[in-house]
Amino acid sequence: MNAKMKARNATENGETAEDSILMTLIGNGEDLAPMVRHSFEMGKPETLVHQLKLIVKKKEIEIEDLCKLHYEEFIVAVDELRGVLVDAEELKSELASDNFRLQEIGTALLTRLEDLLESFAIKQNVTEAVKMSRICVEVLDLCIKCNKHVADGQFYPALKAIHQIEESYMKVIPVKTLKNLVEKRVPVIKNHIEKKVCGEINEWLVHIRGTAKEIGQNAIGLASSSRQRNEDMLARQKKAEEESCLGLGDFTYSLDVEEIDDNSVLKIDLMPLYRAYYIHVCLGIGDQFREYYFNNRMLQLNSDLQVSSVQHFLASHQTYLAQIAGYFIVEDRVLRTAGDLLSASQVQAMWETAVSKVTSNLEYQFSHMDTASHLLLVKDYVTLLGATLRQYGYDVGYILDALTNSRDKYHELLLEECRQQIKDAVINDDCKQMVLKESEYQTNVLSFHLQTSEIMPGFPYVAPFSCMVPDCCRIIRSFIKDSVNYLSYGGQTNFFDFARKYLDKLLIDVLNDVVLSIIKNGSIGVSQAMQIAANISFLEKACDYFLQTAAKQCGVPTRMIARPQTTLNAKNVLKSTREKSYVALVNLVNHKLTEYLSLMEKVNWIIDDVAQHKSEYMNDVVMYLESLLSTAQQILPLDVMYKVGSGALEHINNTFITTLLSDQLKRFTGNAVMGINNDFKTLEEFADERFHSTGLSEVYKEGSFRGCLLEMRQLINLLLSSQPENFMNPVIRMRNYNSLDYKKLAIICEKYKDSPDGLFGSLSKRGAKQSNRMKSMDVLKRRLKDFN
Question: Which whole-number Å values give the CA distances from 492 to 477, 478, 485, 555, 603, in the listed order?
Fold first, then answer.
């Protein structure tokens, strides 16, 4: 509204719009620079100057009007000012009078004030002197205490007093002489304390190294006790589970927890170390002490890691390993309780150094050991070392790997020891059936699952095997135990496959090889070969027991080994060896029979009369077969006994055929054939009797021992037949002579003569009339000759 009023007034006074705008800008206190610049840019500065002059003139008029308006009020104010000046003069005179009186009173007070200030200054000086004296007294008191503590060996209180002097008094000691003395003596005392503490820590380092062995032995003893408790607990648990499966009763399970405080058992005095470290920290040289401690302990570790060259490692390994265990138990305690004296990286560096050296030492010592039991003893203590240090957080995997790397070496030594033991057991075996009492039956038969029946036999019990079998079983059982003992380290659970592998190696490369070498040696007799064959079958049967024993010791459930893929390869190898032993037995029997049948060389093949009794050699053969089959029935399976018996009879048959075919036999007569017929009847009767009495007839219903003599029987029947030429009849030949060969028969028939070759044999033959049987034989000879 005001702006509009002014604009209207300006218009009325003859002002232009530009003048009005300029007035507005000046009234608002705005910047006129843009307008001035615009005027110059337009080239009309005169117009702007003119406008400004008009505005100035207008403002002067407004000022004059304002002065006229307030003139009267100004006159009144001047009059009032003059009255004020009069009052001021009066006040000034009164003030001068008051000042004079004040000066008179203040002079006396000023004198008293000066006296007071002088007394205050004296008091202040006395107070300062008392304060300085008190400081000196306190410093001297601390110095006395420090000297006393140092003299008593109480270095920490002494350092505390020194620290208090340095922190609280050193800068404020007022007496320069005392201050200089304190400054000079403090470093000397610190140096003295440092030397004393270093001496104590050196003594402690020697002491702790000496006690590390005892600490390690105690810790390893605790680990051994813990392992034994765990094994006992597992044994009780397995026994309870087995009895529970058998339904022998109800069982109550309880958890026995025995808490053992390692700190109470392993007494480690670290107080000297704590004190020394803290004193060095107080001295400001904590880093120097940390380095000093680490370097000295590393030197001790390197010394402890050296294997004694004076003692054998077997005698010194426990001390060696216990020293290392004690060393790292101490370092673990230092790491956990001594603040930042020892860092985890430093302990790790110590441990890596120890692992590298211990591993190389173990591998070297293992490679030079020649006894499995020695290696097992060292391994057991290394395992306890691993179990002990694992509790303190150390990674013992690389140390246990040294045991893994020596696994084959250990089993090679163990296999070699078992080889000698098994060889001795086999060589020293008398190859006679064991006669066992009831107590011996348990230890020699039931212990190895060798029983042939679930029914308890009568005693004394004649076992079908010799003493070699239980002896070898005991050796193998001991091998399994020693093998599992070596494999079960570091808390491993999946080592059954390795145990089975080495068990297979023992059974195949050792037991089987030893038995096979005895068989192939050729120095054994029939009875020995028969007993060895029987023994092999029982060893093959014991393979299941060996596998169960290995699984049980490895903690593998019985149901796991019932799978086909978990069987022992040795079972098939022993089976193959058993078959070879049967072949060797048959060969030995045949060789023995050949010795008996060699007496046929004394037989008179052109005898004049028929022998009324069986030949002497046949008596020997039958008696030998009787003894052979009786023994075989006791210790061999029926199928093997059948194989042995049929092989022997076939050999007898073949021997007779070979004798008749040999070039040494030029001719034989019918009387000789009748004698052979008598012998074979005896042999056939024996074969039938043994075939039925041994129970073979129930198993082999379509076979018989008599069948093994069939070729010789058919030949005898043909030679004694009234019509030998019927052999050429296909029907008769297939029914009665199907085992005979044309060529062999032709050779034998050519040697067959019905009359003896006596003094007048040829004359009698010429003059005698040939019988019908001989005529038929001649016909057969011609036809066989034509056929061949």
Answer: 21, 21, 11, 11, 75
Name the residue with tokens 């006159």. Answer: 75
Q: Looking at residues 296-300, what average pLDDT do you find?
A: 94
| Confidence class for position 295, pLDDT limits 50, 70, 90 | very high
- Whether 412 contacts 252, CB under 8 Å: no
pLDDT computed for residue 285 by the predictor: 86
And the tokens for 309? 């060259």
Residues in the chain, how many? 788
* Cβ pair 599, 586 in contact under 8 A: no
Contact of 363 with 375, CB cutoff 8 Å: no
Mean pLDDT of 486-501: 77
- With 0-12 / 13-18 / 19 or more C-beta atoms within 10 angstroms meaning exposed / middle / buried, residue 422 is buried
Dist. CA 390–CA 397, nearest whole Å: 9
- 171 exposure class (CB count in 10 Å sphere: 0-12, 13-18, 19+): exposed
Residue 352, Cβ neighbours under 10 Å: how many? 12
Residue pair 107/100 in contact (Cβ under 8 Å)? The answer is no
357-380 pLDDT, tens digit each: 999 999 999 888 889 889 989 999
Task: Mark 598-617 as b/e (b = at least 16 C-beta within 10 Å).
Answer: eebeebebbbeeebeebbeb
b/e map 81-120, b = 16+ CB within 10 Å = eeeeeeeeeeeeeeeeeeeeeeeeeeeeeeeeeeeeeeee
Of 146-160, 244-258, 473-487, 712-726, minimum mean pLDDT range: 244-258
Over its C-alpha atoms, the chain yields an Rg (Å, rounded) of 64
Q: What is the pLDDT of residue 389?
A: 92
Is the Cβ–Cβ distance between 377 and 367 less than 8 Å?
Answer: no
**Nearest residue to 682 (alpha-carbon basis) of 621, 633, 631:** 621
For residue 643, the tally of other CB atoms under 10 A from its CB is: 18
How many angstroms separate the CA atoms of 277 and 341, rounded? 7
| pLDDT higher than 80, residue 241 | no
The encoded tokens of residue 529 equal 């070969």
With beta carbons less than 8 A apart as the criterion, state whether 323 and 216 touch: yes
- What is d(CA 9, CA 20) in angstroms, rounded to the nearest whole number? 10
- Look at the alpha carbons of 51, 57, 62, 66 in this order and tell me if their dihedral is positive or negative: positive
Mean pLDDT score of the chain: 83
The reported pLDDT for the residue numbered 17 is 66
Q: What six digits make up the tokens of 263?
A: 């700190």
Give the C-alpha separation, 524 to 535, whole Å: 15
Cα separation, 378 vs 409, whole angstroms: 14
Any bridge partners for residue 668, and if so which?
752
Which of the listed ranges 124-128, 487-491, 602-606 does the model predict with the highest average pLDDT? 124-128
